[in-house]
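Instructor's aside before we start: the two examples that follow are unrelated to each other. I chose them only because their records fit on one page, so don't look for a connection. First example below.
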Amino acid sequence: MKNYIYPYSVCVGPPPVEVYLRLRVTSGLSAKTAEAAEAGLPNTWHGVTVLRGDEPVGMGRVIGDGGCFSQIVDICVTPEHQGRGLGKRIMAKLVSELERRAPDGAYVSLIADGDARLLYKKFGFQETAPASVGMHRTV
C-alpha cells in the first residue's frame, strides 16, 4: 500500500481567513462569511492545517472555553486529497492536544456528518442519542 501521508505536513494553527473559507466550501462544508471567519478564527483553542507542499488541503480546529467544554469543528480535506488518511491525521493531532492540555473531566463534543462518525469513533467519541441529541440554530 502506498504511503499517502509522506507528501503532507501538518502545521499548528488555523489557516488564514481566505484559505479557511476556500477549504470549507471545496470540501463540502457550509460557506461562512469573511466577517464570521475573521471574528472566529482568533478564538481557536487549537488548530491544525494540512499542507501538500505549500498548498493548504485540510484543517481542523478545537474551540471552547479551555476548561469545561470544547468542540471539534471544521474537520475537512479537499476532495482530491481525501482517502489518504488525512482526516485521521487531523483528528489525531487535535485529540492529542486535548489530552495534553485539557483538564480532567473536560467535555469534548463534535457533530458527525454522515460516515464521519466512523472516524470519530476510532478516537473514542460515542453517539449521545437517545440520552441526548445535538441541536442547532443558525442566526
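Example two begins here.
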Amino acid sequence: MSNLERRYRRLLRWFPREHRERHEEEMLSVLMAAARPGQSRPELRDVLDLVRGAAVIRARWAFGSESAARWRDAMRVVAAVGPLALLAYQIQLGIRPELLPVGVLIVFLAWTDRRRPAAALAWIWAILSSAGMVAGAMLSTGAYGWTSLGVRVAIGGIVGSFVLVAAVLTRVAQPRRGMLLIGRGRTLAWSGAALTVAVVTRQLDAALWEAGVPPTLLPLGLIAVICGVVAQSPVGRRSVVALSPIILAMLTQMLPQLTTVGSWGVALLGLGSAGFLVAIFRSRSLAQRAIDS
C-alpha cells in the first residue's frame, strides 16, 4: 500500500462505517486514478471535498429518514435510564429526600412498560421537585441571591431535566425496550454503580472535603466512562445526545467545585478524559453488546 493510498484511507474513515463498506473501494479507485504520478499526499481540494462529503453523509445518517428507527430506540433508552439518572442525581444533591420513593416507583413503572402511570408520576415529581428547589434557593440565598444568574441557570437545568424525562415518558412508547436494548444485566450493573456513587458521595461529602478530595470526582468519572461506552453504537450516540440536557445540568452543578480544589481539579479532568478515551478505544466489544445497533 502506497503512502498516498494509506492517507486516502485515513480520510475515508471520516465517513460512516456502513457507507465505507459499500463505497470505500470505489471512492479510493477514483481518487487514486486522478492522482498525479509520484504524488504522495492528497491535494488540499480533495481533503476538503472528502471532509465536506463525510459531514453531509453523517448528518443525513444522523437525522434523515433512515435514522428514524435508531432515534426511536434512543428515546426508549432515555425513557428507561432518564428517571434513574435523575434519581441518582437527586440522591447525590440531597434534594427533597421524601420524594425519592416517587423516583424509585417511576423507574419501576418505566422498566415494566407502565408508561402512562410513570409519565403521570414523573410530572408530579418534576413539579414538586422544582417547587422545592426554587423555594429552597429563595430561602437560603434571599431575594437578591435568587436573582443570581448562576443560581437560576443551575436550577433551570435541573428543572429542565425533570421536565425532559416526564415529556419523554409521556410521548415515547415501550420504555422497557430501552432497558432491553442495553441489556437487563448491564442496566442493573450500571444502575447499582450510579446509585452507589451517589449515596457514597452524599454521605461522605464533608469527609471528602476535609481530605481535600472533591465529592464530584467519582460521579463525573462515572459519567465520562458511561458516555464513552454507549457512544460506540449508533443508538448509544443518539441516546447521549438526547440525554445531554441532563448531563449538562449535572456538569453545571458539579464543575464549579473545580475552582476550589486546586490540583484535584486537574486530576478530575484527567480522570474524566481518561475514562472517556479508554471506554471509546478499549470497550468496543462491550458497547456493541450493550446497545445493539
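Residues 3-63 form one domain.
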